[in-house]
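Data availability (excerpt). The following record was deposited with the supplementary files.
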Amino acid sequence: MSIKFLAEDDRPREKFLLKGKNSLSDAELLAIIMGSGNREDSAVELGRKILDSVQNNWHNLSLLQISDLMKFKGIGEAKAISIATALEIGRRKASQEVPEKIQISSSSDLFKVLHPFLGDLQTEEFWAVFLNQSNRIVGKSRLSAGGINQSVVDVRILFKTALENLATGVVIAHNHPSGNLKPSQEDLKITKQISEAGKILNIQMLDHLIITQNSYLSFADENLL
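Predicted structure:
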């Protein structure tokens, strides 16, 4: 059943135009992305089933592979790619909403900056945020991307980038796709290496964040620096 055969109040596109985008449910938004359902389910009903399978959570939906989406009746490769593309656009939009010169006053500020880049990843990445004397962000960079369990960090590249940005402070962060916030021995080791190297260059290491989909751990807050 395609959208055009639904009752007028249930047509997501028409509802969008008549009542505005904020009036649409999550299932209706997904229905517009898909365009149609299958023989048994309207696009809205199919959208509801897909969202139910991920606890009605967009973050969880973004973790599904194309092959996972195609397991739903009525979702072929083209629709699956459309869904994945829409979610990627949302992720990029979220990352661009962070002002480039935002001032950092707490670990929660850092989490807000870095979560759009790291929160949904299924492999580990290592990022650095560079700050000036006023604790305003002057740059951020992905330094490495590794496997599920580890990410190799080149300390030389980190401080080369810090010097290029005229930074006086640096924050490092990486994600734990497993959801476990406990620092590993490697996490503690690299933290110490970067902190000691920063002292030589008079660039203070301000924090190290471990980020998961829903939370974070701050080394500074936990007195682990």
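Summary of structural features: Residues 77-96 form the longest helix (20 residues).
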